[in-house]
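Case study 2.
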Amino acid sequence: MASKLTLGYSPCPNDTFIFHAIASGAVGVDGRAIEPQLHDVETLNAMAMQALLDISKLSFYAFLRVKDHYRLLSSGAAMGFGCGPVLIARRALSREDMPRCRVVLPGRWTTAHLLFRLWCPKAQQRYFTTYDRIFDALETGAADCGVIIHESRFTFEAAGFRPVVDLGAWWEEKTGLPIPLGGIVARQELGSSLIRSIDTAIHASIRQAMAQPAKALPYIRQHAQEMDQSVLEAHIRTFVNDFSLTLPQQGLDAIATLARMAMDAGAI
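Prediction:
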């Protein structure tokens, strides 16, 4: 077995917070070298479709497509309440307006896209860009509305946009479950023993970051799109929580519900 493990995650504060101890070498995995690769989540989703990485963050929508090749880990999930993607626009819009609107989304295989499809299946004018270009697409008039994720959730109102719908709140009302945004997976062929070690290391990395958050801050700032300290802290508080430490049955139920709704909607 190779002595090096490739590890993919996004440059967003929650991921760099989670993986700082592993990236810095403070936490290891069975004596193997870890090669971090930071990419936009949709790039990671696409890489997972080709099984290019040993360990990777990916959207739960993408996971539904690759679960035969990747095993979901218990640690590292982005899941919870009050943390979902938000559909925004410059002007007041409703669900009834969506079939006439051009909607920009942060990636075909993001959970944000799936939630939008489930909320409004009649909206067909959908196109995709990276999450950090959603504001630009709305500013230039290339889209009428867009779904935002990550740091943008905390800055869109200051940028002059208004919410059309909080897709996370819609999901919570409909299901009563936490919003399953993304998780960490490992290639099945790594074997159960090594995968358990990887899971344990990620859990330890999160614990270390929670115990000493200032240690991770330079690494977080190195990669963050938004540098405001209060935004970084809000982002981490929102997306790194008890669900990130260990997925409970409620979290597994949320993923199963997402899969069932996606299947019923013909999205997988």
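The two ends are 33 Å apart (CA to CA).
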